[in-house]
Design brief:
Number of domains: 2
Number of helices: 9
Distance between the termini: 39 Å
CATH superfamily of the largest domain: P-loop containing nucleotide triphosphate hydrolases
Helix content: 40-55%
Shape: globular
Number of strands: 9
CATH class of the largest domain: Alpha Beta
Largest sheet: 9 strands, mixed
Length: 298
């Protein structure tokens, strides 16, 4: 492929909300989804249905995951929510897939114990693909994804009215190291103030702008996400190229380009139309090439 002008495309939200228990992650996620104007919101709940306590904020549907918290369960629920047309999928909480009962760490321990060598390093070869599959399910989702992650806590002494008072502060999220890199935005929420700070922000909406999560947070996010080139514009461009393909070899090149430019929206309806156009044109070209071969043989 040749170098082409870089243009920002419309995108699906990939947001992580991190904080200790009680920081306001679930409430914040629902306020953001409401502010985005979502028609249908699905909550994948691992907290014994506690998300229902916030049903006064916005209408949403909920499904509860119980132990074991395997990546496969999360993937199944994400796929189901996509198929049922939910605009926003809230995963509350993603930390259980890592450190919960039956999660990745438990799976790694079981794999290590079952091996002859008892080598924990080699056990990751079996477990890591399961974790990666969950990451891909979120990244490739046709829905907006908001995931909450619990933060590791540490107790420190703080001065309150001249007295030393122990308080809990949030540290890194309880997830595989580097998981935050997979998200477009990561907001860390302070329990005492419920004010967030951004530890990662590709939108540049929240840099050095600590605040509380409100519905406006969601509106600002959806406005930014939708301000790029639309999925339909991208799809229409490649459908035209596909329809004008004069050979199967050129068709392959065009579809590879479409795959690369649409890597984050492959489950969208627009990309499905690109695939249909490719299959249709491939059949037409195959018939034409077959006729030419028959003609040559005659």
């Amino acid at each position: 492929m040749a170098f082409v002008k870089a243009e920002r495309k419309q995108a699906k939200l990939r947001l992580a909300l991190c904080g200790v228990s009680g920081a306001g992650k679930t409430e914040g996620a629902l306020k953001i989804a409401k502010g985005m104007g979502a028609r249908k919101i699905a909550v994948i709940d691992t907290e014994r249905g506690s998300a229902a306590l916030y049903s006064d904020i916005v209408d949403f549907d909920m499904d509860i995951i119980t132990p074991p918290f395997t990546p496969e369960k999360y993937i199944e629920k994400i796929r189901e929510a996509e198929q049922r047309g939910y605009d926003v999928i809230i995963i509350d909480s993603l930390s259980h897939a890592w450190a919960g009962e039956g999660g990745i760490l438990d799976m790694h321990g079981a794999e290590t114990d079952a091996s002859k060598s008892k080598n924990s390093y080699y056990a990751w070869r079996t477990v890591t693909p399961k974790h990666n599959a969950l990451v891909e399910a979120m990244l490739q989702s046709s829905s907006h994804i908001i995931a909450s992650m619990r933060s590791k806590t540490e107790t420190i002494d703080s001065d309150v009215n001249g007295k030393k008072v122990p308080i809990k502060i949030g540290l890194a999220p309880i997830q595989r190291e580097g998981m935050d890199y997979e998200f477009t935005v990561v907001l860390d929420i302070d329990k005492a103030t419920h004010v967030y700070s951004s530890s990662k922000d590709r939108t540049r909406l929240f840099e050095n702008k600590p605040a509380k999560i409100t519905e406006k947070t969601g509106k600002d996010l959806i406005d930014w996400l939708m301000s790029g080139i639309s999925f339909k514009q991208i799809a229409d461009k490649y459908i035209e190229k596909i329809n004008n393909s004069s050979s199967i070899e050129y068709l392959k090149k065009v579809f590879i380009e479409a795959n690369q430019e649409s890597s984050d929206v492959k489950n969208s309806e627009e990309f499905k139309e690109v695939v249909k156009a490719k299959d249709r044109r491939k059949l037409e070209l195959s018939v034409n090439e077959s006729d030419i071969e028959i003609s040559k043989a005659a």
